[in-house]
Amino acid sequence: MRNIILLIAAISLASCNNNVQEADAFGNFEADETLVSSEMSGKLLWFTLEEGTVIEKNQVVGVVDTMMPSLQLIEIEAQKQKVWANMKSIESQMEVFKQQKTNLTIDYERISTLIKTGSATQKQLDDANGAIMVLNKQVEASESQKIALSKELQVIDSKKLLLDEQLSKCRIENPITGTVLEKFAEPGEMTAAGKPLYKIANLDKIILRAYVSGGQLHQVIKGKTCKVRIDKGKKEYIDFEGTVTWISSQAEFTPKIIQTKEERVNMVYAVKIEVPNNGTIKIGMPGEVIF
């Protein structure tokens, strides 16, 4: 009787174990991490973020020293005002020349009339004509100066735009909404353009990188949903629904992190499965997938 009870218990236990579906593939969770750097070199005047905090896209998280571009902007503005003053002076001078030309033209016409009656000489007419020609040259010279000043203004405006861009790059703007994974700098430190300041990733959706054999590839279809699970204690699992987002086009040897002695010569294909994350799944955690 005792043997029969033990046999029934063994069969029941085997039946329970069979209810847990075997996984088709194994892997580890990862996230699309972004390294954020400053676009300008200088001292970090302000840098407020902490590891583990969630920050929004385009949120300003720090400022690099803005003294140099700010001073250059002041200098540029002074140069621009000086050029504008010269421009106004030339325009006023041109107005004087035009009025003088109008007066000389009237004199020229009057002298032309007087010559007919013998009341003026040809020399007077020539002098009036020469004076008009001189004024024409002065007006042309003033026009050339005005054009040169306009070009100078364009150069100054271009420099101002460049400095405005540099000043905007002194602000460190967060590129994506996500969680700060690691921080590499502190306020008051010197930084350089391109030097990483912190690492961020969107953990609302996390990636399981798993590996399947060539014989399993027919089960793996991009865009297809599948079951992903993680350990909950020794015998239980937490299930998630994932979506296949990428399938490697090249085979590779089984990664060391999941290979067994018998699998060292096997070739597998990497796949990525996107899984909505409620905060339970952490980067580096092992996971299983059932297609």
Q: Describe it for me?
A:
There is one protein chain. The protein is α+β, with helices and mostly antiparallel strands. It folds into 3 domains: 23-32 and 202-290, Beta Barrel (Elongation Factor Tu (Ef-tu), domain 3); 35-66 and 171-201, OB fold (Dihydrolipoamide Acetyltransferase, E2P), CATH 2.40.50; 67-168. Helix content is 40%, strand content 30%. It has 3 helices and 15 strands. The protein has helices spanning 2-19, 67-117, 122-169; strands spanning 25-30, 33-37, 42-47, 54-55, 60-64, 171-173, 178-183, 190-191, 196-201, 205-213, 225-232, 236-247, 252-253, 267-276, 286-290. The strands form 3 sheets. The chain has a 6-stranded antiparallel barrel with strand order 1-10-14-12-11-15. A 4-stranded antiparallel sheet has the order 2-9-7-4, with no helix packed on it. It has a 4-stranded antiparallel sheet with strand order 6-5-3-8. A hairpin with a 3-residue loop joins strand 11 and strand 12 (236-247). The protein is elongated and about 125 Å long. The chain starts with a helix and ends with a strand. Residues 1-18 have low confidence and may be disordered.
Number of distinct beta strands: 15
Overall domain count:
3
The structural class is alpha+beta
Number of helices: 3
For the biggest sheet, the summary is: 6 strands, antiparallel, barrel
Mean pLDDT: 86
SSE order: HEEEEEHHEEEEEEEEEE
N-C termini distance: 43 Å
Q: Indicate the proportion of strand residues.
A: 25-35%
**Portion of residues in helices?**
40-55%
Key phrases:
single chain; 291 residues; alpha+beta; Elongation Factor Tu (Ef-tu), domain 3; OB fold (Dihydrolipoamide Acetyltransferase, E2P); 3 domains; 6-stranded antiparallel beta barrel; 4-stranded antiparallel sheet; 3 helices; 15 strands; 30% strand; elongated
